[in-house]
Specification:
- This protein is of the alpha/beta class.
- α10 packs antiparallel against α11.
């Protein structure tokens, strides 16, 4: 077993914070370096299924999340124009009974705040802001993170949790060229109360239309309604969560959709319509050296069509903790961690991409035919939701 390590984590997003909390609980000395001047997350919803909730409960945060989250009754797939239900599977009690933890819809900022507070409670002051990583130097004695402000921090392990544009990944793997998928995501969040007539059930709804789809669900004790709508666009914009576009363009992209979707769009603050150009990176192995590794979007960024990006990052942190716990040296631990995460995260990336094609079938009949051959709830339960990163055997 490795003696307790000094660990530097680049990036204070959900994955970096979850990893830090896991490692701190296991006795490691951890510091997180974040390039932003203050902590915060975008105003978006996030789905937290049982596989991620196992990590949150391990951190002692299950009750705190439950107080702010929404527990959906079901996941329903329907036609975007008529609202006709194509398929549905139960969540709520059924999900927890099957997988040992609940399924929640959470405001991303709420989850981020809860994780950050947990990290600070375990080691006050360990989150350092205004530190933009520029690279790292690695040798047999350790690894030194080098920052744009001139700071140099030496530790036993460097974890690149620095997101889609990861500096750690670029140095380790070389510059990559993410490919634009042709899909653009509109992202909005609106007060729920005026829309309850159109959205009477506490459920997740996936709306499908030729060349597009959307997801809607409640967050923050059902006070807010989150909507992410995907449309096919030839021109790619910058890969960012925070680009604004005109409301009129948003409205036009969903012309002809169900009255419930129209009511939601009509309720949106015209200055709060965000777009996100979706890019894909093929899964790649070999994301660790003797002292440096990657987690989350830095190495296996995924399209949002399976709602598992943040869950994979949280799983990563738990498995990394366990790999350090059961290995004889750091290099072996990082290899064990990667070996046990590559196939699963690669499958999530590929299944997410495949879902995009499924949801965008060009005709009603094609969608009905495709869903007649698949049980979406059973499929996800069989390999995705039933994974517990704290109990799965590492080899």
């Amino acid at each position: 077993m490795i003696n307790k390590c000094k660990v530097t984590i680049a990036g204070a997003g959900l994955g970096g914070l979850a990893a830090a909390a896991c490692l701190l609980l296991d006795g490691h000395e951890v510091e997180i370096y974040e390039q932003a001047p203050q902590l915060g997350e975008v105003g978006a919803g996030i789905q937290v299924s049982a596989n991620a909730m196992h990590v949150i409960r391990y951190l002692g945060l299950g009750d705190e999340i439950a107080r702010q989250a929404v527990r959906p009754e079901a996941y329903t797939f329907c036609m975007a124009d008529t609202g006709e239900v194509v398929q549905s599977f139960e969540l709520s009690e059924a999900h927890e009974k099957a997988h040992g933890a609940p399924y929640y819809h959470v405001h991303r900022a709420d989850l981020h705040e809860i994780l950050a507070a947990k990290v600070e409670s375990l080691r006050p002051g360990c989150i350092k802001l205004n530190h933009r990583l520029s690279g790292y130097d690695e040798d047999a004695d350790g690894v030194t993170a080098v920052f744009a402000n001139g700071a140099r921090v030496k530790s036993d392990v460097l974890v690149g949790a620095d997101g889609l544009k990861s500096v750690v990944r670029a140095q380790m793997k070389g510059a990559d060229n993410p490919i634009y998928t042709g899909d653009l995501a509109w992202r909005v969040m609106v007060p729920a109360a005026p829309l309850r007539e159109h959205f009477p059930r506490i459920q997740q709804t996936l709306w499908m239309s030729g060349g597009g789809h959307a997801v809607s669900y409640f967050v923050r004790n059902a006070e807010l309604l989150n909507f992410v709508g995907i449309v096919e666009k030839e021109k790619a914009s910058e890969e960012s969560w925070t680009l604004r576009r005109p409301w009129e363009e948003f409205k036009a992209d969903f012309a002809g959709w169900n009255p419930a979707v129209q009511a939601l769009i009509d309720s949106v603050d015209n200055d709060a319509c965000y777009v996100w150009a979706l890019h894909i990176r093929e899964p790649v192995p070999d994301w660790s050296t003797a002292r440096v590794t990657l987690l989350g979007d830095a190495i296996h960024a995924t399209l949002p069509y399976l709602a598992q990006g943040a869950a994979m990052a949280m799983e990563d942190g738990a498995v990394l903790m366990r790999a350090l716990r059961q290995s004889e040296d750091i290099a072996g631990a990082l290899a064990l961690y990667e070996r046990n995460r590559f196939e699963r995260t690669a499958r999530v990336v590929r299944e997410s991409s495949a879902n995009g094609k499924l949801f965008h079938h060009r005709s009603r009949q094609a969608i009905l035919d495709a869903f007649s051959k698949r049980d979406m709830g059973a499929e996800r339960s069989s390999w995705l939701f039933n994974y517990n990163p704290l109990l799965v055997e590492l080899n």
